[in-house]
Design goal:
This protein has 323 residues and is α/β, with parallel strands linked by helices. The chain folds into 2 domains: 7-163, 3-Layer(aba) Sandwich (Rossmann fold); 184-314, Rossmann fold, CATH 3.40.50. The protein contains 12 helices and 12 strands. The protein has helices spanning 7-21, 39-44, 56-68, 79-85, 87-96, 124-129, 142-154, 201-213, 231-241, 256-267, 287-293, 298-314; strands at residues 25-29, 49-51, 72-78, 102-106, 135-137, 159-163, 184-187, 192-196, 218-222, 225-227, 244-251, 272-277. The protein is globular.
């Protein structure tokens, strides 16, 4: 496993390269140049970085106005403040008005652990995917962050990019090809499916490795696009593995697990387990402590998968082996 990397570095490097090739690309921040990793962008393109101060509603409104004028704005702010404080502007100025704005929620999930519940962004996927016409992307590592930024820039329409500051190891090769709306199978399996995105994908892969040592074949799917969700990947997983564990750095209400469950219950009902923050305010503590506290870990995913496999056996559908 490679050394963990900060996805914000990949984000800013891709944005710099894109801006050098396309003068329409601008960055808009809310006094968050440092935390959004935009210092190099400001140094190279000072006239193309707009800092509105701590005013998130204005932040999104300015971004929508720039898009209306033909620019491609990357609106960058801590995910907790961008999505909560400017929700109406995201809904009306960006999505309803179909503005070509790229909303970049930085330090998402519980990455600001020690700053407590006011800074945890564990509802953002639910809020964003509830808005019609808004594409929601949650990259899992540096390589996927790079590709997602480029895909967002090329996409004509509003996009929410969820970028974590929690370092993660690589789960994709350097030549990885990203496609909006497509889930990626990182490991084949036939007994159970582990679905994850963002900082949880590498944990799902580790859980699959642990399960393999116990004779359980686990498929691992990376749902880096939450909206639009890859329905076909979900239906194949339900049909071929008979059970799905969905794990995310987010509340279990309205996020990735809910998006998958909506497809499953409508078209191919199978047992599921949802791993995330269980409908409570996350406490104060380091990011790793919080992930452990809520069982958003390889061990937690493994345990949920074993429950599903045992449930299949109890109902007379023995676990299959091999891929």
């Amino acid at each position: 496993m490679t050394a963990p990397a900060d996805c914000r570095v990949a984000f800013s490097a891709a944005l710099l390269e894109l801006a050098a090739a396309d003068p329409r690309i601008v960055a808009v921040t809310n006094d968050s140049v440092g935390s959004s990793n935009l210092k190099a962008f400001r140094q190279r393109f000072p006239e193309r970085l707009i800092d509105v101060g701590i005013a998130e509603q204005n932040l999104v409104g300015v971004g929508a106005g720039l898009a209306n004028g033909g620019k491609i704005p990357f609106v960058c702010a801590a995910a907790c403040f961008l999505t909560a404080r400017a929700l109406e502007q995201i809904k009306v100025d960006c999505a309803y008005s179909r503005r070509n704005v790229k909303l970049c929620g930085m330090a998402s999930g519980m990455a600001y652990g020690e700053l407590g519940p006011t800074h945890h962004s564990i509802e953002d996927m639910a809020w964003m995917r509830a808005i019609a016409g808004l594409t929601v992307l949650v990259p899992a590592d540096a390589a996927e962050t790079d590709r997602a930024v480029r895909a967002a820039a090329a996409f004509d329409g509003p996009v929410f990019l969820r970028i974590s500051r929690m370092k993660v190891p690589a789960v994709h090769p350097d030549n990885y090809r990203f496609e909006i709306g497509r889930a990626v199978c990182l490991r084949q399996g036939s007994d159970v499916t582990l679905a994850a995105n963002g900082t949880v994908v590498w944990r799902a892969l580790e859980a699959a490795r642990q399960l393999a040592a116990e004779g359980i074949s686990a498929r691992v799917l990376n749902f880096s696009t939450v909206q639009p969700i890859d329905r076909e990947a979900i239906l194949r997983a339900a049909e071929e593995t008979g059970g799905i564990v969905a794990a995310e750095e987010h509340t279990v209400h309205g996020g990735l697990g809910s998006a998958i469950a909506e497809v499953v219950v409508e078209a191919r009902p199978v047992p599921m387990r949802l791993i995330g923050v269980p409908g409570v305010f996350a406490p104060t503590g380091s990011a790793e402590f919080l992930m452990e506290h809520f069982g958003i870990t390889a061990a937690g995913i493994r345990a949920a998968a074993l429950e599903l496999v045992e449930q299949k056996v109890a109902h007379g559908t023995p676990a299959r082996t091999g891929n």
